């Protein structure tokens, strides 16, 4: 199984430390050694850093940990290959343009009977079930909405029915974003938490460290220290208005109440807030 | 005007040093301070590093200089904005999928009357004339070739006629690749050179340094030292079979004979060799 990590925030927020934790699971503390990727949205634009080598050894992953790219929406993935070779074209997330926006997708799970999925004008470049399913989703969206839709929550409700179809073919945990919205669809494991003022103190799951969220850290700094002995950068700042939601395959902190998404359920976030 | 840099090679080759030279022109020795990007193909997959900030100050650019990503095909661009704000979504190169391959495009120049170009299912995400022209090119290709074409040189001949149409609207220097082929279309300035065994000695344009290509450097190492005081990494190796073509807006070395592409002409390279 792969690990997913997503973020939605109302102010551009960096995810360096959260990503540091994830990276350690990519060949460090976890078995997910078959590549990794992370997509940051900055306005309508996005950029993806990816590497088919284990994240724990990747110079690109090191850059992403050290370079605070501030973003409203983030989708990240570390891979344990099942379908498709370990290769750049099979490395998540995948981004395609639809309705003049960049759509970014990452999948955790495995599908059967995916080869017969019709993908229309969206052709997979690699060999994964994941990319094929993404192309099928986009194709179905263009069939349902030949013109740019106005009611985006309705679009995501339709996407949830498509995700449900895919879940019928195996395991389908998904993160999907168009840069404004971040959708989390759960097939087996997916958790989320929204942090907002007043920021409290979080205890990490696997080491004896407490972070005081009301200090100068950003509300997602804490996620870090789970998997690795890192130093927290206190130079970043929260304001009382910051709202940041983090989505992850498994909870990343101990004494906070992460919400579990039940199999077949989904959540939609926009600017840090839960919409659905 | 922006600067273009491309590479086509018969063995996976890194372009760290060539890129180091280009980067210096991005806010260092040159005026191209409005972002930069570089796309590397590794197999069918590709990854793009880009930053809307000047390349000379970009931590991402520093990574690309230091991390030897070996590639058959590379497209790079540094930007001096004319149409479209300085923003990530307006930063070249642009990549879109067509016929199950990633197509990457970078443009140097400025177009008039581009807003009326029909782009079909390929919608621009940003506001540049460049991305609009790219979407139009792809749309025209899907009209001409509804199914995946087999004769790629014929496809590129058709692309050249489309590029000619765009040249009628202003200045249109272009690099375009599907990962196997690298096409260079010239509207004003574009040069190329193919390096192969026996590798000779090159004198740099703006300093008194000679590089012996027959030593252990790779054939494109030399490009580096043009704009900056860097050290050459002699740990990489050439073999007698290496063929590497470098394409650049302006020649990067002195005593080598760079070929100028005349306005309205184009070249097509595959695995380092000129095809057209």
TrEMBL record, chains A, B:
InterPro entries, per the entry: EgtC-like (IPR026869), GATase_2_dom (IPR017932), Ntn_hydrolases_N (IPR029055)
Glutamine amidotransferase type-2 domain segment(s): 2-272
Superkingdom of the organism of origin: Bacteria
Alphabetized PROSITE patterns for the sequence: GATASE_TYPE_2
Keyword Metal-binding carried by entry: no
Keywords: Glutamine amidotransferase
UniProt-listed PANTHER family: GLUTAMINE AMIDOTRANSFERASE (PTHR42824), GLUTAMINE AMIDOTRANSFERASE YAFJ-RELATED (PTHR42824:SF1)
Protein's name according to its UniProt entry: Class II glutamine amidotransferase
Organism: Intestinirhabdus alba
